[in-house]
Write a structure and sequence with these properties.
The chain folds into 2 domains: about 1-30; about 35-175, Nucleoside Triphosphate Pyrophosphohydrolase. The longest helix is centred in the middle third of the chain and has 13 residues, at about 80-90. By secondary structure, the chain is of the alpha+beta class. The strands form 3 sheets. A 4-stranded mixed beta sheet has the order 7-4-9-8, with helices on both faces. A 4-stranded mixed beta sheet has the order 10-5-6-11, with helices on one face. The protein is about 20% helix and about 40% strand. Its EC number is 3.6.1.13. Keywords: Hydrolase.
Amino acid sequence: MNDKTAPPKTVYEGKYLRMIERGAWEYVERTHASGLAAIIIAVTPEDNVLFVEQFRVPLQAATIEMPAGLVGDVHADESIEISAIRELEEETGWTAAHADVLMIGPTSSGMASEKIAFVRATGLKRIGAGGGDGDENITVHEIPRTRAAAWLVQKMTEGYELDAKLWAGLWMIDHHLDGTPRG
């Protein structure tokens, strides 16, 4: 029996994650959501890119990320677009008139079954302060789009962990998936 046909065996199941063994592979999957997360690419009317800063326990470090969240963790039948707008509002205090899924792909295909949807949020309007839900302590950063990459590099030199998906998100602000410029 190979890894493709081996039956999955649950090694551990917690409140949010399950560890699976399938043949020679060990990986994790989510237990309470769809197995899909959304990363939100959002640029304000003032041409500022929205980033969030928060402490991440697995890394024991502060991270810089684009706003993101799980699809289906609040309402099981919630669409990717609605989940993305909800997370954007919760984390940043901005809402969006529109949300468009640009692409979906794995986050770490050798370790987890989770996939992520890159979602472009447009028609942004500030509705609150953001900062996350009750157990989150999120700092919102609004960085001019033309300085965003340099700001991220500066944050790396200051010791922040940067989500690698940031660079893909920045590229998607100005490009269609086929590489042609937006605009």
